[in-house]
Amino acid sequence: MISLVKDAFSCEMLKVYCQSITAYCDGRKGGVVLCDSVDISAAVASEKALMTPIIRNADQKSISSISAEVEDGNDVEAVRTSSGGNNVVNEENSVGPCCTLSAAPSPSQVDQICKAMTLECFKLTTELLGSLLQTICKVDDVDSTFERLPDCLVIDILSRLPPHSFLRCRWVCRRWRALVSSHDCFTTLHDLCRASTPMLLIRDNFAKHRPGLYVFGENKKWWKKAAFENLHLRPELMINKHWKDNVVNLSYCCQGVLLFASISWQNIYYVVNPVTQEEVTIRHTLYPGYVSALYFCPYTRQFRVLYTQVRGSSCQYFVYIFKMRSWRKIRSSTSFNFLSSGGNPPVVNGALHWIVYHDLERKTITPCENGIMVFRMDKEEFSAMPNPGSSPLCKSKEAHQTMTLSVKNDRLSFCNLLFPKYTVDIWILEDYEAQTWMKRKMITDSQVNDTAMTVAATNIITMSHTSSPQAMTPAEKPKKFMVLILKGGNRRCSSTLQLNVFNDSHLKKLQR
Amino acid sequence: MVKLKSNDDKEFEVEEAAVIQSEMIKNMIEDGCATSVIPLPNIDSKTLIKVIEYLNKHINMGKAAETGEEDDLKEFDEQFVNMGWEELFDVIMAANYLNIHELMELCCQSAADRLKNKSVRAVREMLKITNDLTEEEEQEIINDAPWAFEGPEIDDTVN
């Protein structure tokens, strides 16, 4: 017994069992009947006697007190006195302690009996509960509709709610508050959204009053109309004040987190999460320069801002760490002098990619051999690689302005709009290490022709899949290849704005 | 044909083309583990019937778009999710277990649509959740984002 009690785990087990053994199945009443108290009984056979002592209210006693009670000499005395004689079962008090003894045991025998008894006791309870617990659990489940769902499924459902409803979920109960508040949940939440329905954030520069941000939800069920909703930002946020004065620009977005640049003050950036309505104001003294990327580092599971500081003919790069609220200089072994394109850099193979516009050192030469700039997130290193089909296509620096990079099926894809024919070349990087590009498509669509086309222009900022940072762990990626084309901007205001989704080879106009 | 067995020991025969929409069973078939009956200890027969109904209807999902049956499918989906919360969660758990992506999407979206714009009180009542937050905690949450708790779009009805 002593050794048993010393074993904390079995002790706890027995305690739990004792506490939960407060119910039994009653076939006639058709369910589980709760008991007020639990008595444990054990039958112990010794050479001369069969003892069946009962420990009353075992559910309220600790294992040590049960142990003590069993081992207690007084209790054993009581058991002994109640026996009355040889082979007599105490019938007067059938629920009380009863004991059948052929002869009064000696003290050493009592000790032995006690040891055997507690072991029996443990075994008995365990077996009894195995069958009982099942029934009890089943009955408990009935009235907790939502609680049966595992956390991941609850998040899956809640993540589909609009921001207002989503935030209100925190008020429902503690479990939901924990789910909705945790930052990890929010990241996974957006991963989920990405896999199912791409969510686009659209800036409408042609609105009559002031540029607005709209959330565009292309419904999974494509037969439903696409819907636009105004992006809600809490009035208290700093960004809102500047937004009204039209002095901020939406520059980057990553997993639903947006980075705004202030037009009036070059050293201020606002990073906003529209779902949690959190805001961080970033200041720096690193200008002249510009933010090159807002990215989510999968290794540290943190958001980062990459800043390029231009110093004459060379660049210095800095990373902003939100946790520390500070900038850190990147010590890249190779120095880079390229100015990259704007827009969210696509993430493939754990690295960010940009099209290079200018070579700061050799300003007259087109940067074809180093057409694509690469930033590895794990080592924080820069490198470069040539863009596909470079030599015949690229005759001027301007040609690079029509090039864009995106992600298709976890591979880097390169898209080039060729003037004056308005054809679009699409290349896919088949082998990342060997840098082998495959030309996939050339699109000459008359519909493309008459649109004032800006492929992946800054007007359209995908909140979701094209800037997926989870390249190292290939998650489910959209199978469609989407090129968004905005047209009608030069006609009237936002009401004529048309959205075309380019889906492999069919140009589909989205209903509004 | 593939035989599935629910946790109350009822067997169902399903066409392989239908059942491979479940990633889990598809993998089992590919690995050659589905020669006899596949036991599904987490799914009762009532839910399994529902899931099979869905699988059979969506057997030719890809072709539907070409043959103009999409309206038919849409109608079926709308009818399909027209069920009680209990049943819906059973189907969600089954779809999650069997890894049927489309069904998960349909049901989770339906659940979200029902909760959309509902007041906190309505959500609690619909899902039978007991409020275990203290008053101070509640106030803290409301103070955090007051705009989320007011507005004309909040729907207090339970249905």
From TrEMBL, chain A:
F-box domain segment(s): 143-189
PROSITE patterns in alphabetical order: FBOX (PS50181)
Domain of life: Eukaryota
GO molecular function, one term: acyltransferase activity
Pfam families for the chain: 2-oxoacid_dh, F-box, FBA_1
InterPro entries per the UniProt record, alphabetical: 2-oxoacid_DH_actylTfrase (IPR001078), CAT-like_dom_sf (IPR023213), F-box-assoc_dom_typ1 (IPR006527), F-box-assoc_interact_dom (IPR017451), F-box-like_dom_sf (IPR036047), F-box_dom (IPR001810), SCF_F-box_component (IPR050796)
Gene3D superfamilies: 1.20.1280.50, Chloramphenicol acetyltransferase-like domain
Name the UniProt record assigns to this protein: F-box domain-containing protein
UniProtKB/TrEMBL annotation, chain B:
This protein's pathway: Protein modification; protein ubiquitination
Bilayer-spanning residue ranges: none
Protein's UniProt keywords contain Nucleotidyltransferase: no
Recorded superkingdom: Eukaryota
MF term (GO), any: cullin family protein binding
InterPro entries with a match to the protein in the record: SKP1, SKP1-like, SKP1-like_dim_sf, SKP1/BTB/POZ_sf, Skp1_comp_dimer, Skp1_comp_POZ
Residue ranges annotated for the SKP1 component dimerisation domain, each copy included: 102-148
Protein name as annotated: SKP1-like protein
Organism encoding this protein: Capsicum annuum
